[in-house]
Amino acid sequence: MRKLNVIIVGLLCAFTSIGQSIHKIITVKEVERIERYLASDELAGRKPFTPGIELAAKFISEEFAKNKLKTWADSKTYLQTFQVYKPSLKSIKATLNGEVVDSKKVVLIGKEPKTTIDEHSAYAQASIKKGENFFQSAYKYIAGKTPSVVWVDQDFAALFARLSNRNVLRESQVNVLFILSEKLDSYQIEVEQDITPLPLSNVVALIPGKSLANEYVIFSGHYDHLGIMPNRAVQGDSIYNGANDDAAGTTGMMMLAKYFKKWNKNERTLVFAAFTAEESGGFGASYFSEQFDPQSVKAMFNLEMIGTESKWGKNSAYITGFDKTDMGAILQKNLAGTAFSFHPDPYPDQNLFYRSDNATLARLGVPAHTISTSKMDSEPNYHKPSDQIETLDLENMTEIIKSIALSAQSIISGKDTPSRVDTSQLK
After folding, report:
1. What's the burial of 132, exposed, middle or buried (CB within 10 Å: 0-12/13-18/19+)?
2. Which of 58, 78, 129, 212 is the residue whose CA sits 20 to 30 A from 36?
3. In this structure, are residues 172 and 85 in contact, taking their beta carbons and an 8 Å threshold?
4. What are the strands, taking DSSP E only, across 181-310?
5. How far apart are CA 424 and CA 231, in angstroms?
6. Domain count of the chain?
7. Are residues 163 and 28 in the same domain?
8. What is the CATH number of the domain that holds 62?
9. Contact predicate 285/275, CB 8 Å
10. What whole-number distance in Å separates Cα of residue 43 and Cα of residue 350?
11. Which keywords accompany this UniProt record (predicted)?
């Protein structure tokens, strides 16, 4: 315990050099207050389209207002509301090379009530071949802007049906037709479905910059989770509270907003975003990213699961896509002399750089990275009802938030500008 106290004292000495007394603003007590409410049973797992997530959005908005942050684009509310669409399949007919085939071999991702696609339709042709990452490849087409017919190798038959689970579609969704077959010259697919529009809301606030007001630095976390899942109850508990995933990241983002508002030295405009629907397709982050010219966004700090110790122990975290830009090196430089350290993502095989809410802007060249401590190879509470506040190390989480505040200083002041992601190298 004495060694840990010495480490914390060392960190606090470094933090006070920023100006405001950071340890009086970002406190364990305050972190626990926010985290405990976001992960409470009252919010019932914060699933989109439920009262629980609406309560969470109200709470985050009230905290932004309490700290006197501005709304986005002079809005009267911190809510950034947009429409998504829920399709309900009524019928599907599939003919390949003149033969009627099982409709389960076809999945249409699209929001048109009636659709007919054949070899004469103006659709791009693509394929997902054996050996590819199936869902990563499929998402590339789903998130694209080109209507496409995608031929899927039979090797993915067991995974193919899961494409139909994508039951929420974005406003800009184009038709993407997946066919479990080798590419054929003749085909006709007829789909009829009911389409229901539904509202979703990010919660967004900002602190205007001084000399570089048109340059943005984003701090984010997703505030949704899985909700109540009776069919996946564990020992009678069916509420998936999502304390670490990602009430922890959202709490961190909110604490940074409070701190930087009092710090009041940001030359660049700071944007604080609580994203919705990350767990169901990243819809919140996708909509949010469309509001920016990517060149104007100089950095993005996405906080995801920071409530537990990393594989290196306390006072450490990792940065996804560390080698994609020099942002990680800048953050490490700014932490020189402290006991805290950032590391490259130790789980490259899990492709985390493209799996969180930083990915949309990163694909546009923005140095957008996720900061996390989650041990993805051995996280015992990931997507389980046991992901509750009692499993978190709130003292360590508080130090992580302070270290992010310190490491971001030179970027938000305009002294440092991270290099851009080389989009030609993106998969």
Report:
1. middle
2. 78
3. no
4. 187-207, 212-222, 227-228, 239-240, 268-275, 297-303
5. 43
6. 2
7. no
8. 3.40.630.10
9. yes
10. 30
11. Hydrolase
211 and 331, same domain (yes or no) = yes
pTM of the model: 0.88
Helix or strand run (H / E) with residue 407: helix 394-407
Phi, psi values for residue 89, rounded to 5°: -65, 130
Claim to verify: residue 363 and residue 215 sit in the same structural domain: yes
Phi, psi of 121 (to 5 degrees): -70, 150
Does 4 map to a domain?
A: no
Burial status of residue 17 (CB atoms within 10 A of its CB: 0-12, 13-18, 19 or more): exposed
Nearest by Cα to 252 from 44, 35, 12: 35
Q: How many CA atoms lie within 13 A of 239 on its CB side?
A: 14
Residue 172 near residue 145 (C-beta atoms within 8 A)? yes
Mean pLDDT of 151-167: 91
pLDDT digits (tens, 9 = 90+) for 326-358: 999 999 999 999 999 999 999 998 889 988 999
In whole angstroms, give the CA distance from residue 340 to residue 345. Answer: 16
Q: Are residues 56 and 142 in the same domain?
A: no
